[in-house]
Design a protein that fits this description.
The protein is of the alpha/beta class and about 150 residues long. The chain is built from four helices and seven strands. InterPro entries: APOBEC_Cyt_Deaminase, CMP_dCMP_dom, Cytidine_deaminase-like.
DNA sequence: ATTTTCAAT
């Protein structure tokens, strides 16, 4: 199908490991939510930013996270086209510190505003969120990432 | 040429 080809090309364009996200103007967030315990369950979904209204990460916190049961453990995986901005990274850090039942793995397509020192600090803080003995945050870049500096 | 970032018309 032609539409499948176009969708595939668009997906690859959005998740491409480029240095600057010129012309993309969007961020996609695919998530896998695994509930642990007696009744293990997996749900999957996809979110995108609402432009100026809310970034994709905020959309997750506003619409998906409230449906989680704080007495259950969750393994959350995000596949995001862009790394989070400073505000979103801070929100992720806070959320992981506040909710010890969550474990979040983020797979990042490309970096967002990596040159900014504030951005680097926010990502480092996010990566070390949670208790040091049992960190509940993992951050991964593409294996062939050309632009990532050491975190 | 890599060419400027989760829109604004």
């Amino acid at each position: 199908m032609l539409s499948l080809l176009i969708n595939t090309m668009f997906f690859k364009f959005q998740f491409r490991n480029v240095e600057y996200s010129s012309g993309r103007n969007k961020t996609f967030l695919c998530y896998v939510l695994e509930t642990q315990g007696k009744e293990s369950a997996t749900s999957r979904g996809y979110l995108e930013d609402e432009h100026a209204a809310a970034h994709a990460e905020m959309a997750f916190f506003n619409t998906i996270l409230p449906k989680c049961d704080s007495s259950l453990r969750y393994n959350i995986t995000w596949y995001v086209s862009s790394s989070p901005c400073v505000t979103c990274a801070d929100r992720i850090t806070e959320t992981l510190k506040k909710n010890k039942n969550l474990r979040l793995t983020i797979m990042v397509g490309r970096l967002f505003m990596w040159e900014e020192a504030e951005m680097q600090a926010a990502l480092k803080k996010m990566k070390s969120a949670g208790s040091p003995e049992a960190s509940n945050m993992s951050l991964f870049f593409l294996p062939h990432d050309q632009f990532r500096k050491d975190l």
